[in-house]
């Protein structure tokens, strides 16, 4: 199985509705999400982690271990996702900083919709292509 962080590139084993997704025909909300908020593999890895672990409160050390990403890169990503409203951050006297996925209903519905779309191989390939090109463009600057 080939993986990019937490994002598996092989077909998913869980059954999802068979829908054809395209970034060209994507509804406005998903398009906005892809192009302005979930703009990288790393951001998707973090959000997907919370979706698939049922939003358990998580420390940066736990995320680093689960996603196989270094803490210094996660700090920036967690800060961005918190600022954008996708994550909540609180201090715990025992565990330090704890992160949880937003409980805002509209955001959760949109994220669930994006997650379901990512199970469609055509959609997933288009998203990966978009992120790869965006990463390449950013590196050329």
Report on the structure:
- This protein has a single domain, classed as Winged helix-like DNA-binding domain superfamily/Winged helix DNA-binding domain (Arc Repressor Mutant, subunit A).
- It is 54% helix and 11% strand.
- The protein contains six helices and four strands.
- It has helices at residues 28-37, 41-52, 60-67, 71-83, 105-117, 121-140; strands at 3-4, 7-8, 87-92, 96-101.
- It has a two-stranded antiparallel ribbon. A two-stranded antiparallel sheet has the order 3-4.
- A hairpin with a 3-residue loop joins strand 3 (87-92) and strand 4.
- The longest helix has 20 residues, at 121-140.
- The model is unreliable at 1-23 (pLDDT under 50).
Q: What is the beta-strand fraction?
A: 5-15%
End-to-end C-alpha gap:
33 Å
Helix content: 40-55%
Question: What is the strand arrangement across the widest sheet?
Answer: 1-2
Overall average pLDDT? 81
Shape from CA axes?
A: globular
Q: Any low-confidence stretches, pLDDT <50, length ≥5?
A: 1-23
Radius of gyration: 15 Å
CATH evolutionary superfamily: Winged helix-like DNA-binding domain superfamily/Winged helix DNA-binding domain
* Biggest sheet details: 2 strands, antiparallel
Helix-strand category? mainly alpha
- Classified by CATH, the class is Mainly Alpha
Number of domains: 1
Order of helices and strands: EEHHHHEEHH
Short description:
The protein has 141 residues and is mainly alpha-helical.
């Amino acid at each position: 199985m080939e993986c990019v962080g937490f994002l598996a590139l092989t077909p998913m084993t869980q059954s999802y509705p068979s829908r054809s997704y395209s970034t060209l025909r994507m509804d406005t909300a998903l398009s906005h999400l892809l192009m302005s908020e979930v703009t990288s593999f790393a951001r998707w890895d973090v959000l997907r982690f919370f979706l698939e672990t049922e939003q358990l409160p998580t420390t940066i050390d736990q995320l680093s271990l689960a996603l196989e990403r270094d803490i210094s890169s996660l700090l920036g990503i967690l800060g961005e996702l918190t600022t954008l409203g996708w994550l909540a951050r609180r201090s715990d006297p025992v565990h330090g900083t704890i992160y949880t996925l937003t409980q805002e209903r509209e955001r959760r519905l949109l994220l669930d919709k994006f997650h379901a779309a990512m199970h469609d191989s055509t959609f997933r390939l288009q998203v990966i292509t978009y992120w790869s090109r965006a990463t390449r463009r950013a590196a050329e600057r």
